[in-house]
Design a protein that fits this description.
Strand content: under 5%
Shape: globular
Helix content: under 10%
Largest sheet: none
Radius of gyration: 14 Å
Number of helices: 0
Number of strands: 0
Length: 150
Amino acid sequence: MVELGPEEPIDHSDIYEGADLSGVDLHSADLSAAELSGADLSGAVLSKALCVDADFSGADLSGATLTRASFRDADLSGADLTGASLNKANFCGADLSAADLSDASLTCANLPKANLTNAELSGAKCPAADFEDADLTGANVSDAILLHEK
């Protein structure tokens, strides 16, 4: 596992496909266009991180904190986001197809034009989330809280 202290700069050689970044604090990190497919980021902190056009396909982000992070146009297809905190995160145009967002918190999350085809959203909490023009074809929203959608 990569050890990063709170003031230690990110060594981008630690950011690669399949990397073990579980529990790492990447608060406010710039991970734009990063290749992290299949990486283990379970329990990681990516609050306010910039992940534009990044590849997180098949990554494990379960229990991660992604509050106010930007995943605009990122690939999170098949990612595991179970129990993650995605409050006020930006997923505009992101690919979340077949992603598992069960029991995730998406309060005030921004998901316009996101691809959520066949995504698992059971038990997700999404009050005030913006799903405008998002594709939810085949998504499972059973027991999800979708009140106050924009």
